[in-house]
Amino acid sequence: MGLSVGIYGGGGYVGVELVRLLGGHPEVGSLAVASRGHAGRRIREVYPQVAAGGEYLDPAEVDASGLDVAFVAYGHGESAEAVRGLLEAGVRLVVDLSADFRLPDARVYREWYGEHPAPELLGEAHYGLPEVFGAPGGRLVANPGCYPTAAILALAPVIRRMGGGVRSVTINALSGVSGAGAKPSPRTHFVSVNESVSPYGVTGGEPRHRHTPEIEIMLQRLGEAPPVTFVPHLLPISRGELETIVVEAGEIPGPEEVLGWYREDYAGWCFVEAREEVPHISHVANTNRARLSAAVDRRAGKLLLFAAVDNLLKGAAGEAVQNMNLALGYPEDLGLEHLR
Amino acid sequence: MGLSVGIYGGGGYVGVELVRLLGGHPEVGSLAVASRGHAGRRIREVYPQVAAGGEYLDPAEVDASGLDVAFVAYGHGESAEAVRGLLEAGVRLVVDLSADFRLPDARVYREWYGEHPAPELLGEAHYGLPEVFGAPGGRLVANPGCYPTAAILALAPVIRRMGGGVRSVTINALSGVSGAGAKPSPRTHFVSVNESVSPYGVTGGEPRHRHTPEIEIMLQRLGEAPPVTFVPHLLPISRGELETIVVEAGEIPGPEEVLGWYREDYAGWCFVEAREEVPHISHVANTNRARLSAAVDRRAGKLLLFAAVDNLLKGAAGEAVQNMNLALGYPEDLGLEHLR
Amino acid sequence: MGLSVGIYGGGGYVGVELVRLLGGHPEVGSLAVASRGHAGRRIREVYPQVAAGGEYLDPAEVDASGLDVAFVAYGHGESAEAVRGLLEAGVRLVVDLSADFRLPDARVYREWYGEHPAPELLGEAHYGLPEVFGAPGGRLVANPGCYPTAAILALAPVIRRMGGGVRSVTINALSGVSGAGAKPSPRTHFVSVNESVSPYGVTGGEPRHRHTPEIEIMLQRLGEAPPVTFVPHLLPISRGELETIVVEAGEIPGPEEVLGWYREDYAGWCFVEAREEVPHISHVANTNRARLSAAVDRRAGKLLLFAAVDNLLKGAAGEAVQNMNLALGYPEDLGLEHLR
Amino acid sequence: MGLSVGIYGGGGYVGVELVRLLGGHPEVGSLAVASRGHAGRRIREVYPQVAAGGEYLDPAEVDASGLDVAFVAYGHGESAEAVRGLLEAGVRLVVDLSADFRLPDARVYREWYGEHPAPELLGEAHYGLPEVFGAPGGRLVANPGCYPTAAILALAPVIRRMGGGVRSVTINALSGVSGAGAKPSPRTHFVSVNESVSPYGVTGGEPRHRHTPEIEIMLQRLGEAPPVTFVPHLLPISRGELETIVVEAGEIPGPEEVLGWYREDYAGWCFVEAREEVPHISHVANTNRARLSAAVDRRAGKLLLFAAVDNLLKGAAGEAVQNMNLALGYPEDLGLEHLR
Questions:
Q1: Active-site amino acid positions of A
Q2: pLDDT at position D51, please?
Q3: Which of the residues A155, B322, C295, D210 has the least number of beta carbons within 10 Å of its own beta carbon?
Q4: How high is the pLDDT of residue B157?
């Protein structure tokens, strides 16, 4: 019969990727796609590039109690409320793609996002970066942010081994425009973005992007880690992210050594690959891959890490389906084989 | 009567910008445009976007002894030989846009480019970043590299004031494809570049780009400066560069203080401007501007500097004409008013 | 002292081009820039790529009675009202960049745009395509639409000579996104436009774009012309337009003959040029040029015309300034020399 | 055991798509990928975006006699020779992606491409546009050109029904740069293509593109068809094609009628779909779809047809695999399910 799956927030860029991936997933029996903004419209009217034949439902129309799995792609705050309702309705597995369950501490959450709407669930959430933190065990997965996915994959093996020796971490991040969401704004107007690149997330002369605490907290689970400086830039491309990460430490390993760590830590995981050559965004776009590389500036005593992902796939919907696969005991790439 | 001006290497992207700028310069009386590759072809046949009516000459056809000013836009090595000949022929001012006279020391040059073809002229060359090193005085100007132009403008006021206190400098640089030259290659094929971003200049696991020593040496003229880590990336845009520079030091000034330094040091220069808001490449593309900004990550003790230029204008041909203006006593923006 | 000039609607893409061009125009003494949406904000805060130092005024703040020249870049309907007020206030020359005075007949206007707000002025308006209809004589210029500028320049010499013999005209038009205006919408979101091309202006299975009647009516002034089929497409570029026009007629001239007609009709006009080679958008972007070419499919009995302009310059702001120059007796390219 | 499949010319853009598609095809048991230019290099070194682990072979290294199916993606002329050898070696099915077997008449071939190297095979070739000409029957498939795929799909139902009534057909075609091949040239340099659009295929004042006779001949198989005017344009996108086709006829049907013809003729075929809304390139990019639509300009008596495909998939490699599937009796979308 297959799984009964619901998507909440199916009208955004991440939502529509979920529609595509789950629509072709061999274990999915039925798929309900809800969107508050598009309820009643045919999916392929809103996204003509999607083959799906169905209609967007109003979230209230979906019988949550009949769902095996739910994916929630709402904005922060709204997501947590929806997740609570779904868990109460007895949904077996909820994968939340918002930021609501990524920060394990309600006080830290408050500082960056405001009051947490469902703090009692924070302890249950599994941070869904399986190559670092393992397959999800419980009923709630906090799907990582796109930038943290790339950053933590590149940094985890380093922090594990070099721990307290790391003095400084700076992440220079470059992202395609789909990362800014489907809502039209002056900032995402074609003419604003095209033939340009712009740093963002700098407020009052200070870099302050919400993915910073997510990266720091997750790295601190793995070893001693310094504050992370995170500077994102908007690129004139639709999808994909590249991070060039600078690590300063007393003792700097060689690049081959770092590649060895990557290969060791990610052995057996099919979507993460370290190579000698630096990754380009085109090497990962439209796939669920993460590609990693490393270099060393010996004169300056710095380690350079390079990581690339597709922000909508490995950085969002692809990783979410991978998390569902792992949580339910399927191969991690089930239904994602063409995105390896 | 106006100046008699020659352009050598007028067939590349920088060369054709020189053609445009000098063709409209009010003090230029006659303009000879030479190109080894395109000799005999009409300029507007090779570059239909150029209004110029003339033909590319063979360099040997140009009577150098009749030139007041020559611009040389050859590759390194070849440029130095041409410059020597032009100076011997009595040209009053030679602006060299290659790397040949940027590094003042033949030994350093050898390490990065090979044997220097005209070491006896190295002592004569004025490094043509006038906002930092003043108006050119002699007969030979070494026009700065595009990346160094942005980097030194952003870093000079910092190094001057924070000198020995600066522990670490990392330059994350992003450039449009015209910076890679007009020669077709797999790397500059539209399909390779489009919808991607790629780090480059990493060889054998080490960042090694030739603009690194240029930046370091020029900064060391201004104060104590640590080794510079320089990581360039290729962007899917035609022109423009953005550098996000991370400076670590014991004592970090506030962003307003750094903006104050910029305003102080660049007062009276019309093409360099510091603003509170971060620069985008679109703010400077198709102009001779440099735009600067600063931010501070207090938690991590890092100063962030942002600099943007158009690599073909302020980073090459525009700066070259500005240097000519200053060397000959004209206003720095003569013929460049529409590029302010 | 210079001219006192006002810009109404200075906050859109066309408006900001006017700010740039008029800000550097040698005969402009004072420039008031009004914008209903941006009043009170600094121009360079809204458009950081503009060097201008001033502030957007509220239209009501501008003393129209003191203006020599006014440019109106409002939407249709609103523009006509503003123009009436300006003329009543005694402004010497009003250049209207909306569609309000392009169609000479209020009944035709009603069919495409609604009731005309100032029909009494229709008779006064000079259609400002000077290379076809001569220099403006009166106090009101209707600046042509961007598509009609290219189309009429390409077709006028043909209609004049082949008149009744022309059986069919189809215009396949391609435009950059700035032609759709600065207002954010799903259609102008970067991700919608990028890596795509889309036909538009098709409603209910019928091509219906408002530039169609403008083109037809202006051609009919020059000779007998059939109904024009006009199919616009949105391109993933910021600026520039290309039209590929198919003309069917009993007798088809050779391409050289058509080029000869172009050269004859546009002799003495500096911004229009016919060449044997087909124009690319890059040949005209960021200039006030129109480039034309012609080819012939003898087997099929069709004449192909190619025309390219920059939609914001020759197709809007550049042409508007050219019209002001001509109306006031200046050289047509005054202040536009760098855009030839 | 699965099919033994060979790819000849696996180093170009079409070749690498074949590698991807056949590498994931469930009936392919072994895959030999040959490339004269890249022999000995790992595939993923040349195309790091490809997951495939193997090496490019020299064509001579492949034991053709052991192949069930061969795909040939060479240039015209070279392809025919290779095909002859493969058929002689006993390969069960050869899918040729060059132009060599698309034109059924050696005299027509000579006019456009030169002397045909294997005219004796022309009669055997099945033109592989299955939705129009049915599933391939024999051992040689001539895979259609990318432009003809879109054009014939849009025009076939019209020519079948309106036959002799059609007076004129003009195809305005827009293509991404991958259609021009992977070989670097000034024309495919990023800076040449970016922010521009250029008509091409015009020689000596006449449109002459090799896909013209292919389209005409195939249409003539379906009914009476006039000469076709074909004007291609190069777009600043990587992949995808859009054709806007103008048909003039005495009697023009309504758009719904044409959509009805499309639905009737393409019923049961999964990759071709007609919709009321006009297709955008983004609706088909990275898929094996063709999307069709129609509009009518009643005033001018013209029918407008719109067709979009991905030039590398439905216009090349995807269609080739679809042809293999049909020739061997598999479902047409086997291994292509994610590209529907």
A1: 146
A2: 83
A3: D210
A4: 98
Closest chain A residue to B284 measured between Cα atoms? A196
At B263-299, the pLDDT tens digits run: 999 999 999 999 999 999 999 999 999 999 999 999 9
Please state, for a pLDDT cut of 70, what percent of chain D lies above it.
100
> Which pLDDT band holds residue B301 (cuts at 50, 70, 90)?
very high
| pLDDT (mean) for C140-150 | 98
Q: How close, in Å, is residue D207 to chain C by CA atoms?
A: 6
Report yes or no on whether pTM surpasses 0.80: yes
Q: Where in chain B is the domain with CATH 3.30.360.10?
A: 147-311
**Third-level CATH fold of C147-309:** Dihydrodipicolinate Reductase; domain 2 (3.30.360)
Task: Quote the ipTM score.
Answer: 0.96
Task: Tell me the one-letter amino acid at D309.
Answer: V
Average pLDDT, chain D: 97
User: At B340, is the pLDDT very low, low, confident or very high (cuts 50, 70, 90)?
Assistant: very high
Contact C178 A184 (CB under 8 A): no
Q: Is the pLDDT of residue D53 over 80?
A: no
Selecting from D24, D285, D291 the residue whose C-beta is nearest the C-beta of A337 gives D24
| C146 annotated active-site | yes
How are strands ordered across the β-sheet holding D166-175?
D198-199, D228-234, D166-175, D241-249, D302-309, D290-297, D272-274
Per the listing, tokens 């003419």 go with: A191
Q: Which of C182, C195, C237 shows the shortest C-beta gap to A189? A: C182
Residue intervals in chain C for CATH 3.40.50.720: 3-143+316-339
Please tell me if residue C195 touches chain D, with a CB cutoff of 8 Å. Answer: yes
Rounded to a whole number of angstroms, the distance between the first and last alpha carbons of chain C is: 27
| Whether A140 contacts A200, CB under 8 Å | no
What stretches of chain D show up as alpha helix (H) in DSSP? 13-23, 43-46, 78-88, 106-113, 130-133, 146-162, 190-193, 211-220, 255-265, 317-327
CB contact under 8 A, D229 and C196: no
> B147-311, which class in CATH?
alpha beta
C107 to chain A, minimum CA–CA distance in Å? 35
What integer is the mean pLDDT of A207-216? 96
Catalytic residues of B: 146
Architecture of domain B3-124: 3-Layer(aba) Sandwich (3.40)
Q: First-to-last CA distance in chain D?
A: 27
Catalytic residue among C57, C142, C146, C222: C146
Q: What is the pLDDT of residue B1?
A: 75
Q: What is the CATH number of domain D3-143+316-339?
A: 3.40.50.720
pLDDT of D1 reads 74
B interface mutation test: which of C292, C338, C339 has the most B CBs within 10 A?
C338
Residue range(s) occupied by CATH 3.40.50.720 in chain B:
3-124
Q: H-helix or E-strand containing A195?
A: none
